[in-house]
Amino acid sequence: MSLVLAVVAAVVLAPPFGAASATAVDDTDGLVVEVVVQFDAAAEAVIVRPHSDFEELPPTAMAVQDDGTWMAWVQLPTAQNWQITFEGFHPDGEVDLSESTDLLSLGVDPVVITSEVTAPLPSQPLIPAGSWWLIIGVVLAVAALGVLAAWTFGADRTSAVADAHTEIAAIDDE
Fold first, then answer.
1. Which of 40, 92, 83, 80 is nearest to 62 (CA)?
2. CB within 10 Å: which end of the chain, N or C, has fewer?
3. Is the peptide bond before 16 cis (omega within 30 degrees of 0)?
4. What are 93-134's pLDDT values in tens digits?
5. What is the pLDDT of residues 29-49, one digit of tens each?
6. CA 160 to CA 166: how far, in whole Å?
7. Is 169 helix (H, G, I), strand (E, B) or coil?
8. What is the reported pLDDT for 7?
């Protein structure tokens, strides 16, 4: 497990959320981040939703602490600057959603963050673009061989049928 530096920083979110902060805990396999946010201690639940422009990870439930803050360890697949959004649930069914912030703004050390989250690579096509001409050529060659075979064997069959009709006509004439 590598040593991860912590930078003390906090972001104050719009009410009813208060100060929020994050600390990188482990960066050996992706990134594990400890996230803390101030929210009403009487709330029923608070979850943290990590996301990027390209994907949303499953939410992580947060645990209430003695000082009225909520804390969770969030497992991220990559050590990149993920966006974080908090969602608080009140006992009466009301839901509060915070504005999004990123890990760097929450105080994760920039040394741990490798780069901005990038779009996933598009999947490779099953047939490369340059191969289509080869496929079309093979299909045309097979079709040409089929036409040639039909013409060759069809001509023999037609003459054989004509010969059979001639012989039947000759037998009828006798």
1. 40
2. C
3. yes
4. 888 888 888 888 888 877 777 655 555 666 666 667 777 788
5. 888 888 888 887 678 888 999
6. 10
7. helix
8. 40
**Among 34, 45, 161, 58, CA closest to 109:** 34
Nearest one of 110, 137, 142 to 6, comparing CA atoms: 110
Q: Identify how many contiguous H helices and E strands the chain contains and give both numbers.
A: 2, 10
How far apart (Å, rounded) are the C-alpha atoms in residues 159 and 174?
23
**8 Å CB contact between 20 and 36:** yes
Q: What angle do CA 125, 77, 45 make, to 5 degrees?
A: 125
